[in-house]
Specification:
With about 375 residues, this protein is mostly helical. It folds into 3 domains: about 60 residues, no CATH class; about 80 residues, DNA polymerase, domain 1, CATH 1.10.150; about 180 residues, hpI Integrase, Chain A (Orthogonal Bundle). Strands 1-2-3 form a 3-stranded antiparallel β-sheet, covered by helices on one side. It has a 3-stranded antiparallel β-sheet with strand order 4-5-8, with no helix packed on it. α3 runs antiparallel to α4, α8 packs across α12 and α13 packs across α14.
């Protein structure tokens, strides 16, 4: 039996769906094993669609019992993560971290089909109490992608990740480190890693680009470095490279005499795994976590010495390099090319406040060019 009834007159008319609408229409049916099932809907059209679905599946012999349709959130999450084969190793590591730390604790034990939009909003609110807005956005992005896949896989009729309000990400202007502070970083860092500080400050390369740089990309005769890939591996003994962040990141960087001499000295020393220019103390690749630990150690030492804060990563040297270029009068287009930005718009979005205000100069250039004719 599969039937639809109007239940508006019943005493339980106060029941509502996840959007607060009254559940007026109910579909009843009997599964092949004799168990009675029902589902309630706010509008008759939705109830009729469910009725047609159940009748069609029973008639075709492809009906799946309600209990068999329930999927635990953590089970589907594990399956979804395994399917992220298009992601880089480093991205998969980040996905796993955010899923374990944020997403799974919020929904473990829940059936995928039972999770509501309100629950997703509540999870985002909980994350916002301890995480930075940008991190919340990343965690939510993974959850939303997973729910979208669940719809495509037939587990959900619709994703609950709709209309979710996110914490506002405040734009804080970048304040580049002064030269004396960068020199202090180089002096404080372990001797083995000091050349990286000088190189990064002189080239503005991303940490992953610098850590993945190999000697076959360095031309000491012409003083150029070719950037066409970055380090993405998770094993220091076996370096793995991947494409750069964007196609615009592929570029050649000119280096000056001091940097050339620095690289010559490094090349004369012990070789690193995979022909890497920079390696860890064991001559293996420098992993992302290792690079973060190196910077964090220096940051704490400088703080304890009451010499200020150096920021939270190697990209601070990239900002420093950009500030030097801007102070030297380089155009946004030239800075964008040097840093591997998509275009000058990206450069201006990041560093517009560092470019000089030319209003006074503009007035001097135009003042007095046209004078009134004497009467």
């Amino acid at each position: 039996m599969a039937a639809i009834e109007d239940r508006w007159q019943r005493k339980d008319k106060t029941r509502t769906d996840r959007y607060g609408q009254g559940l007026r229409w109910r579909v009843n049916w009997i599964e092949p094993d004799g168990r009675r099932r029902s589902a309630s809907f706010a509008v008759k059209a939705a109830a009729q669609a469910k009725l047609d679905e159940v009748r069609g599946d029973l008639h075709k012999g492809v009906y799946r019992p309600v209990d068999a349709r329930r999927t635990l959130f953590e089970d589907y999450a594990a399956s979804w993560q395994e399917q992220q084969i298009h992601q880089r190793d480093s991205s998969r590591v980040n996905i796993d971290r955010r899923m374990r730390n944020d997403v799974l604790p919020s929904f473990t034990g829940r059936a995928l089909e039972d999770i509501t939009r309100q629950e997703v909003q509540a999870a985002v609110l909980t994350w916002s109490r301890t995480l930075a807005p940008a991190t919340v956005k990343v965690s939510y992005g993974y959850l939303a992608s997973m729910m979208k896949a669940a719809v495509l896989d037939g587990h959900l009729d619709a994703s609950p990740c709709v209309g979710i309000r996110m914490p506002k990400i405040e734009h804080v202007p970048i304040v580049p480190l002064p030269t004396e502070q960068v020199q202090r970083i180089a002096n404080t860092m372990q001797a083995h890693y000091r050349p990286m500080v000088a190189f990064c400050a002189a080239t503005g390369m991303r940490s992953s680009e610098m850590r993945g740089l190999t000697w076959d990309r360095v031309n000491l005769r012409t003083g150029t470095v070719r950037v066409d890939r970055q380090f993405i591996g998770t094993n220091s003994r076996t370096p793995v490279w991947g494409p750069p962040k964007t196609r615009s990141s592929i570029r050649s960087i000119a280096i000056g005499p001091a940097t050339v001499e620095l690289l010559k000295t490094l090349k004369e020393g012990p070789a690193n795994a995979g022909g890497l220019v920079f390696g860890n103390t064991f001559r293996g690749a420098i992993l992302r976590n290792t690079a973060s630990d190196i910077w964090r150690e220096v940051r704490e030492t400088i703080r304890e010495a009451k010499h200020g804060d150096i920021g939270d990563g190697w990209h601070q040297l990239r900002h420093y390099h950009a500030s030097i270029l801007i102070q030297g009068g380089m155009s946004p287009v030239a800075v964008a090319h040097r840093l591997g930005h998509k275009d000058a718009h990206e450069t201006l979005n990041t560093y517009a406040h560092m470019f000089p205000d030319d209003d006074t100069r503009a007035s001097a250039l135009s003042d007095g060019l046209i004078l009134p004719t004497p009467q």
